[in-house]
Design brief:
The complex is a heterodimer of chains A (228) and B (74). Chain A is mainly α and 228 residues long. Helices cover 73% and strands 4% of the residues of chain A. Classes of the chains: A mainly alpha (228), B mainly alpha (74).
Chain lengths: 228, 74
């Protein structure tokens, strides 16, 4: 049990893989390298799917690409409503990134969302987007005024929400990925043969994709609330 | 000191009780709703899954705190 604790500690921290020799050495962490791999997968997939698009007599590859695009954007647009159409590409990208990075543990790489820095960065980007959307659509005066709605008494709670919403977003994502990892390690210690595959179906696949959907759903709900 | 750490971590995970009760009640209401109107089963299903994922988050917070207590307190 002692080495399990030390193994957990080792997984909680992220090691520096290599250092760029600029400005006195910028350390590149492991989650950044896996993020580059995910970026390569998504970009190469996008380039392959969108080559030689035609209007009539479309190939099967183009049919698949159109299906993926309409399903994803339909999903996100349903969450954010018609007023937030300009935010749909960013939200779809975040959905794909978080979904892919939660699943990539199945392929033997350390998932970048298991690193607290990555989830905090995603949550900060979300809250900056929400507040910027509010300011852009309402103007600075009305945005400051909306902190006092619906009753003037809830103003401190509204201001606090600016900080607790990204905190809950990042902690939910990080906790789910870390918890799934810890439970899978424990199962592998107890029954190493067949059970991990069954549980991995739930923890890695279902839970990972669901958490990506919940993250994007909550962000789009906050944006829809700030825009209206 | 070690026993206090263990007791603290144990108390921290106790907040999963709320998540279990909440999700149980939500699933019960969802089953009633589906029984009352089977055509809306798809929408009820997705709402249920979303609600369970959000309720699970509070249990996860307790788990993360317990893990931090075990790992970071010497």
């Amino acid at each position: 049990m002692g080495d399990l604790a030390s193994k957990l500690m080792a997984e909680l921290e992220c090691e520096t893989v290599f250092t760029i020799p600029v400005f006195g050495g910028i350390g590149i962490a492991e989650s950044v390298v896996v993020t580059w791999i995910i970026m390569a997968i998504l970009i190469i997939g996008a380039i392959i799917l969108t080559r030689n698009l035609k209007i009539n007599h479309i190939s099967k590859r183009q049919a698949v690409a159109e299906l993926i695009y309409t399903k994803l954007t339909g999903l996100v647009e349903g969450m954010i409503g018609p007023a937030g159409k300009s935010y749909v590409p960013y939200l779809t990208t975040v959905l794909l990134y978080i979904g892919l990075s939660n699943i990539i543990g199945l392929f033997g790489m350390k998932s970048p969302t298991k690193d607290l820095n990555v989830t905090i960065a995603l949550a900060v980007m979300s809250i900056v987007l929400v507040e910027a959307a509010g300011i852009h659509h309402k103007g600075v005066g009305k945005w400051l005024h909306h902190f006092t709605e619906p009753v003037a008494i809830v103003t401190p709670i509204n201001i606090l929400e600016v900080f607790t919403r990204p905190l809950s977003l990042c902690m939910r994502l990080f906790g789910n990925v870390l918890g799934a990892f810890v439970i899978m390690e424990l199962i592998k210690i107890v029954v190493p043969v067949f059970l991990p595959a069954v549980f991995s179906l739930y923890f890695d696949l279902f839970d990972g994709l669901l958490q990506a959907y919940v993250f994007v759903f909550l962000t789009s709900m906050y944006i829809a609330e700030a825009i209206e | 000191m070690n026993s206090l750490i263990a007791i603290g971590a144990g108390i921290a995970v106790f907040c999963a009780l709320g998540a279990g009760i909440g999700i149980g009640i939500a699933t019960g209401k969802a089953s009633e709703a589906i029984a009352r109107q089977p055509e809306a089963a798809g929408k009820i299903n997705s709402t249920l899954i979303l609600g369970c994922a959000l309720a699970e988050a509070t249990a996860i917070y307790g788990f993360v705190i317990a893990l931090m207590i075990i790992v970071m307190l010497k």
